[in-house]
Amino acid sequence: MNIIWFWALGAMLIAYAVLDGYDLGVGTISLWLTRTDQERRIALNAVGPVWNGNEVWLLAAGGMLVVSFPRVYAVGFSGFYLALMVVLWLLILRGVSIEFRHQIDHPMWHALWDAGFWFGSALLSLLLGVALGNVLHGLPLGAEGFFQGTFTLMLNPYSLLTGILSLAVLAWHGTTFLRTKTEGDLLERVRRWSSALWWLSALLVILTTAATFVVRPALLTNYWAYPIAWLLPLAAAAGLVAGFLCRNEERDSEAFLSSTLTIVALLGSAAASVYPNLLMSTVSPDYSLTIYNAASSPHALMTAFIANIFGMIGVIVYSTYVHRTFSGKVHLGEHGY
Amino acid sequence: MTDPIFAHRVQFAMTVMFHYLFPILTMGLGFFIALYSTMYLRTGDRRYGDAARFWAKIFAVNFALGVVTGIPLEFEFGTNWSRFSSYGGGVFGQTLPMEGVYAFFLESSFLGLFLFGERRVSRVVHSLAGIGVSLGSLLSGYFIVATDAWMQHPVGYTMDPDGSLRLTSFWQVLLNPYAGWQYLHTVNGALVTAAFVIGGVGAFYLLEGRHPEFARLSVKTAVIAGVILTITQAFPTGDLNSRNIVRYQPVKLASMEGLFETKAGAPIAIIGMPDAEAGELVDPIYVPDVLSFLAYGNLRASVDGLNSYPEELWPPVELTYYTYHIMVGLGTLFILQMLAGLFLLWRQRLFTSRWFLWTLMFAVPFTYIANEAGWIVAEVGRQPWVVYGLLKTAQGTSPNVFAAETIFTTLGFAGIYALLAMLFLLLVGRIVLKGPEGTLARVM
Question: 20 to 30 A from A266, CA-CA: which of A87, A258, B115, B333?
Fold first, then answer.
């Protein structure tokens, strides 16, 4: 059950990264990509009806973490107190930027919330990557079980690199998403950006992978123990190659699928490398929080699993339905963002 | 100021109270929107469709703020109260993710469909989406109240030898006997606020002489729903919720009522000022025996006073007492006001009685105060416990967070929330000024 929970949580966070990832990416790049108010609105309407549902994956994953591995939730969240408060403020800023921009028709009002949407999206993409970097890098967990996440601790060079990687990959993912949503001139511009961001992402993926081997060679242990895990990094590479093949031609939805595959496989590889740890201690492996020593009782894990699995199936069904309803190119109508 | 527990309390209290301003209307208004859109589907009367669309616009702004201010709370369980989460997460955490999975997804996904999908789906699906939004927000409320109810009255667990809690019964946690009436009382309170908001906007238009059709529908909806809801707020939901407090948290009840001494035939105090240090209620006006009757259905029953409990287990008596009296006092006034409205409706003077319309408008903020006051009674009255009888609030904090960090971020939240409040009023104000007839034109 502990193992199932590890992968269930992993899957939810990956779903979050893929879904909210594209709207974070759109936020990061749309300010540069779009030239007129009309084009900005197209970009916003592409994410407007779905961002909220996408963000809920993060909330649900947070809730699942409380019930499954309460110690990880307690230690990680309190350790990163200040950083998480900043994340919260950014989530607030981004949410209201999307929802408030269309409420008043005035160029300065629009400019204000465009900036908010950009700032919130870009900084969040970066910080989520930094958080992941810290999880991979390990934290100074001692015998007392808590740590204090100072800024120098969190913003170590390795985590900054993963932060920049996350910023680039999500921006690329945002452009591939917009390729399925836009037309004409704007689409041409999106394609150019998409291809540039592909190069940046590919470069950073290689750089980060190399850095990981140097900083934490132990992360490879699982790959030698379970060779099947190599499929995940291979899939990431395949995603990148597919992204390259789809960069110029008319293969817009395929491009989106390849950036999705890249993100899923990259995060899957990261999960496979830390397993069975959830928060690794840099002090001693004995102090690491694992899926065994940080978990709720077996009964609690089983109950929470059954209690939520039907809901999750339902969630997948209706978020598919909502995505389908709003699929296709964006046409600006009377209603909308 | 340098006491970390106090800083954590202030931060949580401020963020949760600001957040709760929005779910009140989400839960309440969602029901009325579903009602209007169902009426529209059944009768085809355009007024209902216009009303549903108008309130959906306000709902959307309100919902967005509810979402963004709600996220911090889930984080704060871990950031501010990590020892509490680590202690009971496996038990109280059962209901928390279910809120996200079942309720919240339903709510946010259907809201997108309801607001922007009217042209893309059939009218039946659109109306069902409205019902989905309403059900989602009501369900969301249940899971949160159930989580709170577990903190008020922990059930379905055993304690391991090392002192941590282990879940034994999911159903006991989900169907906590404390949760039922607390939930109905909460939702009923939200519906009361929504009825007053609808009536308040209708009254504003009538006083202004604009949008008469919409305004009459709104005021009438408010008065008819309001009469029922303000009464059910007191009885049965409020009354039976109090019985649970009598049964499970008698010391909270004693603080609410300012009852310092255990007494047979205990009175209720209509007014009076509690002085916890002196242990007495100053200048009270009593109605004899009523408290015994309300608590046990028997005029002579003995009700525990604060003196039956050691002082370190008392909640802050004054705050609990005053907020409780504010809630009950306002609730009583709302009943009288709505009965007056019903009388005017019967005499066919409802839409022309300007004094009544003014009071309806001005009552709106007080309904929010009554809701918030009720939650202060529930949560402050639970102190010094975070999990009643098991874990003190002081034992639930994060040991690795400095008071200064919490104070700094609390100030940050205060600033951001002040801004959000201004934006909310600005945007809702604009929607109201523009009026329901603009609904079909492009306003979003």
Answer: A87
Quote the radius of gyration of chain A (alpha carbons, Å). 20
Core vs surface per residue B8-17: b (16+ CB within 10 A) or e? bbebbeebbe
Which of A:67-126 have CB within 8 Å of B? 67-68, 70-71, 73-82, 84-85, 88-89, 91-92, 95-96, 99-100, 102-104
Distance from CA of A105 to the nearest CA of B (A): 9
**C-alpha span between B111 and B55 (Å, rounded):** 13
Facing B89 at nearest CB: one of A92, A296, A319: A296
d(C-alpha A155, C-alpha B68), whole Å: 26
Alpha-carbon distance of B290 to B299, in angstroms, equals 7
Contacts of B398 in chain A (CB under 8 A): 74, 78, 81, 146
Residue pair B214/B51 in contact (Cβ under 8 Å)? The answer is yes
Angle, CA of A243, A248 and A252, to the nearest 5°: 65
Instruction: Name the residue type at position B215.
Output: A
Do B14 and B413 contact (CB within 8 A), yes or no?
yes
For chain B, report the end-to-end CA distance as a whole number of angstroms: 45
Q: Which residue is it, tokens 């949407």?
A: A117
DSSP-derived letter for residue A249 is: S
Closest CA to B62 of B19, B113, B100: B19
**B146 within 8 A of B176, measured Cβ to Cβ:** yes
* Cβ separation A74–B101 shorter than 8 A: no
Q: What is the pLDDT of residue B439?
A: 46
Please name the helix (run of DSSP H) or strand (run of DSSP E) that holds residue B303, with its range, or none: strand B302-303
A281 Cβ contact list (under 8 Å, min separation 6): A138, A139, A140, A141, A142, A287, A288, A289
Structure tokens at B164: 């941590």
Contact between A194 and A202 under an 8 Å Cβ cutoff? The reply is no
Q: What is the residue-level pLDDT of chain B in tens, covering all 444 positions?
A: 578 889 999 999 999 999 999 999 999 999 999 999 888 888 888 888 889 889 988 998 898 888 889 889 888 988 889 888 888 888 888 888 888 777 766 776 777 778 777 777 778 888 888 888 888 888 889 999 999 999 999 988 888 887 788 888 888 888 999 989 999 999 999 999 999 999 999 999 999 988 888 999 999 999 999 999 999 998 898 888 888 898 899 899 988 988 888 888 888 888 888 888 888 888 888 888 888 888 888 888 888 888 888 988 999 999 999 999 999 999 999 999 999 999 998 998 988 889 999 999 999 999 999 999 999 999 999 989 999 888 888 888 888 888 888 889 999 999 999 999 999 999 899 889 988 865 443 333
Nearest Cα neighbor of A288 from A158, A143, A162 is A143
A248 pLDDT exceeds 80? no
End-to-end Cα separation, chain A, in angstroms = 43
Whether residues A315 and B420 touch (CB distance < 8 A) is answered with no
Q: Take residue B409 and report the two structure tokens written for it.
A: 């971020």
From residue A251, give the alpha-carbon distance in Å to each of A169, A197, A235, B383. Answer: 19, 16, 19, 61
Q: Within an 8 Å CB–CB cutoff, is residue A142 touching chain B? A: no
Strand segments (E) across B133-257: 157-159, 165-167
CA–CA distance, A30 with A19 (Å, rounded to integer): 17
Residue pair B381/B153 in contact (Cβ under 8 Å)? The answer is no
Q: Residue B67 is nearest to which of A49, A95, A100, comparing CB atoms?
A: A95
**Strand bridging mode A289-290 / B385-387:** unpaired
